[in-house]
Amino acid sequence: MSFMDDPQWLTPAHGAAPGTTVPAGFVTLVGAGPGDPDLLTVKAARVLRQASLVLYDHLVGEQVLGLVPASAERIYVGKESSCHTLPQEGIIELMCKLARSGRSLVRLKGGDCYVFGRGGEEALALAEAGIPFDVIPGITAAQGAGACAGIPLTHRDHAGTLVLATGHLRGTNESALDWPLLARPRQTVVFYMGVATLPTICTQLVAHGLPAQTPAAIVERATMPDQRVTTGTLASLPQLAIDRAVRAPALVIVGGVVSLQKKLSQGQARAVT
Ligand code: SAH
Fold it and tell me: 99: which residues sit within 8 A by CB, 6+ positions away?
């Protein structure tokens, strides 16, 4: 029996007899922020403290989960781009099934629910199923990395545009991204899920007009105590990533703003640890 069919999760709330229709439970999509548990919103923390059932992703840390009452059920639905515990359709199916059985739940996702991570698909499924839901924003990884690594994403001397892009190219499908747009001058591009495709990203940006010496950085585990920043240029970053054995979760940040990183990270001390 799959855990989705386990009757303990399908017990109707409100004491309704089996077989009777119960009002759908409420689903709260919650952005858990980029890693540092102190970067949860006050609202997200309140909802987590009151939760009785939580479906959570791979990128949600232990300390954030620690806010959930011990009596609550936690279901890990995993989700790394290459290794899903449950496929996306399975997550949506489980969430809708639980809500239809009358159970209210928190769907906890890394960063912000609507920035990659497919939260939009989950919300659409809820809307289409007529299940009541709300969405609580979270700090997305790009914001966390910018602030905590010393990269002011839209410093006006360097960028007038900020682009959040996926580096996940489904194999080597380089045409999946709008390279001419991504290679425009005076902008900052933050690639999520870009570690595996870093050589392609750098090659394509140069092929579409960005100078090979354009500053670029990788921020691993942004906002966490073991955050690591690697800076270089479009020409040097792929080799640096190999030399330093860069691993996900990590963001690739491209643009002139990266040139400010050294000075800012030297001047910046953690106000609260
Ligand atoms: N919804 C999330 C993004 C999910 S996609 C958000 O808003 O942040 C998953 C990708 O996000 C990872 O592959 C990585 O590129 C990025 N990511 C998430 N947390 C991160 C962190 N703490 N440091 C660096 N990158 C992170």
Answer: 24, 25, 26, 27, 105, 126, 129, 131
